[in-house]
Design goal:
Spore Coat Polysaccharide Biosynthesis Protein SpsA, Chain A; alpha/beta; 18% strand; 7-stranded mixed beta sheet
Length: 233
């Protein structure tokens, strides 16, 4: 049988300091099909990623992480991906855990595997981040009817079928909630897989602020209303 083709999609913005290490770390674990979407970075993110061995797609203007994943997933599908893994460019994810993450997709148990730091580990997570993430679980359970242990986690594996069906319209951070809502709407099979999300000073400084969480909530409400109208029509 032909070996399934696993492509890694990395959305990156101003990650010159980390992106080379991330791409090389993926290659070290056997994942050399890497697409880095440079979201109009102000530094040398794209050049560093390309030098490390990744395929780089650059947005001419900054569009947001959701838009970058949309671009990367479309490119991965065109390249013939059987499984697409979304992976952060700031070094928080562990390439060694990809094998465990993609296993339920490869063996046909699920259409999408969602990483969960709360089933796994989150060393160094700030208390306010923990509170915000836990609060978002309750909010999204009420608003979207989605019952997960971790919603805003960028470490996930999608089968080709899931990648073709899921529509990402949210350009910025609300895309994470949109993806799991799409999983529900499209009737896709999903599982959560324990993963490690490492918090250091660099990642924490670049992370989403508490105030940003309110913007995400606003966007989630708008997204649900829009999709509700689309379903009715």
């Amino acid at each position: 049988m032909t070996k399934p083709r696993i492509l890694i999609v990395v959305a990156a913005y101003n990650e010159e300091k980390r992106i080379s290490t991330v791409v090389k770390g993926l290659a070290k674990h056997g994942y050399r099909d890497v697409i880095v979407v440079d979201d109009c970075s102000k530094d040398e993110t794209g050049a560093a990623a390309r030098k490390a061995g990744a395929t780089v797609i650059r947005h001419p203007v900054n569009q947001g992480q959701g838009a970058s994943l949309r671009t990367g997933i479309r490119a991965a599908l065109k390249k013939g991906a059987d499984v697409i893994v979304t992976f952060d460019g700031d070094g928080q994810h562990k390439a060694a855990e990809i094998k465990r993450l993609v296993a339920p997709v490869l063996n046909g148990e699920a259409d999408i595997a969602l990483g969960s730091r709360f089933l796994g580990k989150a060393p160094g997570i700030p208390w306010y981040k923990w509170v915000t993430l836990k609060g978002s679980l309750l909010v999204e359970r009420v608003l979207l009817g989605v019952k997960l242990t971790d919603v805003h986690n960028g470490f996930r594996a999608l089968s080709r079928t899931a990648a073709e069906k899921i529509e990402i319209a949210q350009d910025r951070m609300a895309h994470a909630s949109e993806i799991v809502y799409e999983v529900k709407l499209k009737g896709l099979r999903h599982v959560e897989v324990p993963v490690t999300i490492t918090y250091d000073e660099y990642a924490t400084q670049k992370g989403q602020s508490v105030f940003g969480a309110f913007r995400i909530l606003r966007d989630i409400i708008r997204m649900k209303r829009r999709k509700g109208r689309e379903i009715k029509s």
